[in-house]
């Protein structure tokens, strides 16, 4: 049996600074992943990005129901997924799986599967970890707009250092240190939220966090070059 890889592409990478859809970026990403010859399974999870947050903030004006806000985030992540499916064409499964049951059917077709959120109360990172656990993925790649995990918030501290390796316990310590009240609000789940951490801890998944703002690193990784990049998190 070949390898299985799960990739989460953060919503921030799908939109330009002016909040318009970055079609060139989507095309570039899809061209990189199009060839999955060496892989048994390839599943990509799309985030919601600025558009999801815009919808969530608008819905908050009408309701205090965070779960309802989450459903808007989920819908947008699925719409973003459909953009990638359109770009990939025949090499991808044509539908966005909306549950683990639908995913298990999609897996039978040996195509690239693109999906978004599943249920309220979590982030697309949680989905990526749940899916990686289900398909027993060899690796889970999280593409985001920062270089990896730092010992301190790099936006606040100039002396923050990128952490190239972390084990699950070290990651937990960092998340708990950094957890504020907004952690569990719709649209506010950080790169790593507590739901993601709990699922990760019971799995044995190796997670690679890398910057997808420029896809060269990711391209090299996908084409088999094992470079030390971003943050590698393992048990
Ligand atoms: P994310 O916050 O995971 O997308 O999902 P993102 O924009 O890629 O986030 P970054 O780039 O990692 O920061 C968008 C929103 O959709 C809802 C949540 O409200 C989430 O903040 N969502 C997503 C769910 O409620 N459940 C899911 O399974 C996934």
Can you walk me through this structure?
The structure is a single chain. The chain is of the alpha/beta class and 235 residues long. The protein has helices at 23-33, 49-60, 66-88, 100-106, 124-134, 168-178, 194-202, 216-222, and strands at 3-9, 39-46, 113-115, 139-144, 165-167, 207-211, 231-234. The chain has a seven-stranded mixed sheet. Strand 1 (3-9), helix 1 (23-33) and strand 2 (39-46) form a beta-alpha-beta unit. Uridine 5'-triphosphate is lined by residues 10-12, 47-49, 52, 70, 73-74, 77, 117-120, 122-125, 127, 144, 186-187, 189, 191.
Estimate percent helicity: 25-40%
Oligomeric composition of the shown chains: single chain
For the biggest sheet, the summary is: 7 strands, mixed
Average of the residue pLDDT scores: 91
How many domains comprise the coordinates? 1
Shape designation: globular
Q: What is the count of DSSP helices, taking H or I runs of 4+ residues?
A: 8
Structural class: alpha/beta
Radius of gyration: 17 Å
Give the end-to-end Cα distance, rounded to a whole number of Å: 23 Å
Give the CATH class: Alpha Beta
Which labels suit this protein?
alpha/beta, Carbamate kinase, seven-stranded mixed sheet, 8 helices, 7 strands
């Amino acid at each position: 049996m070949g390898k299985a890889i799960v990739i989460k592409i953060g919503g921030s990478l799908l939109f330009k600074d002016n909040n318009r859809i970055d079609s060139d970026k989507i095309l570039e990403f899809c061209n990189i992943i199009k060839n999955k010859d060496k892989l048994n399974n390839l599943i990509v999870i799309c985030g919601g990005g600025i558009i999801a947050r815009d919808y969530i903030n608008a819905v908050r004006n009408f309701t205090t129901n965070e779960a309802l806000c989450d459903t808007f985030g989920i819908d947008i992540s699925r719409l973003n997924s459909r953009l990638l499916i359109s770009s990939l064409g025949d090499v991808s499964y044509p539908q966005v799986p909306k549950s683990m049951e639908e995913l298990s059917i999609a897996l039978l077709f040996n195509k690239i599967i693109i999906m978004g959120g599943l249920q309220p109360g979590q982030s697309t990172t949680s989905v990526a970890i749940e899916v990686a656990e289900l398909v027993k993925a060899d690796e889970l790649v999280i593409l985001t707009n920062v270089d990896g995990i730092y010992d301190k918030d790099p936006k606040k501290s100039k002396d923050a250092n990128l952490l190239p390796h972390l084990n699950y316990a070290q990651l937990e310590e960092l998340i708990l240190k950094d957890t504020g009240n907004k952690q569990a609000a719709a649209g506010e789940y950080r790169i790593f939220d507590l739901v993601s951490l709990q699922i990760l801890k019971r799995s044995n998944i190796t997670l690679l966090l890398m910057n997808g703002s420029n896809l060269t690193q990711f391209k090299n990784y996908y084409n088999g070059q094992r470079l030390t990049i971003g943050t590698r998190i393992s048990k």
